[in-house]
Amino acid sequence: MTTLIFWGCLLLFAAATLSERGAVGADDFRYVTGYAGPNYTGVHYQFTDYTPDLSVVQMDNTIQSACGVGIWMLYDTADYDLDHAWSVVCRYMAASWCASMGTACNTSSLRYAGSPYGLNDNYYNLYEDTIYRGKEFRGNTNASDVGDLDMDVSSLVVTGQSPWTFYTGLHYTGANVCVYPYRHSTNNDIHLDFAYYDKMDYLGMPDNSIRSVARGCLSDRVLGHPGHERRGLDDIN
Ligand SMILES: [Ca+2]
Ligand SMILES: [Ca+2]
């Protein structure tokens, strides 16, 4: 068995001054530009959507540096580690960021977390495996079940202003926890509110236990309430 290797690629609140991106422009335009060279040089490609196979754009294992807006996960295997290869995942979460990959991420697939409709819309993303790997269940409304991820959720991201309540039972029953997108990242007119949980331990929930999701804070257990400045157990900074 291979062991999970996780590179601490998380970059928060980066002060990005990317030359190609000025202060003007749509404030909810999510993208990541990957460069084949260091320091944002060389052949590059701008991604704006889920990309399960970077070889399609001749960028497989090529990205050496990147800049982006929003929450992006870069996987060293294709298809976001759907095959459970224990992919290395580099994740970048900020209103605007730039990062050097070095040799940490031989990126072969990438995708974002958050709403497809707006950078800071209310949204949740649930993932099959830890660190945002594998299959996904996502949405912006209540879900009385989580489809294919029933009893399989192992990590999650929330974005926007609304808290979400996650339940261990179908139809909003069972043990529950409320999660606020309590982190705030801003760069010029770009704003991003979010919270992320690499694994369920950090939520105080058993792995593979979430079965339904409701919008709002409907639990006595509250994580990251903005008024309390309560920080998630996953804080590593
Ligand atoms: Ca790779
Ligand atoms: Ca799982």
Automatic annotation (TrEMBL):
Matches recorded under InterPro entries: G_crystallin-like (IPR011024)
Enumerate the SUPFAM superfamilies for this protein: gamma-Crystallin-like
* Signal peptide region: 1-19
Its keywords, alphabetically, are: Signal
Q: What is this protein called?
A: Uncharacterized protein LOC108665173
Species of origin: Hyalella azteca (Amphipod)
The gene it comes from is LOC108665173
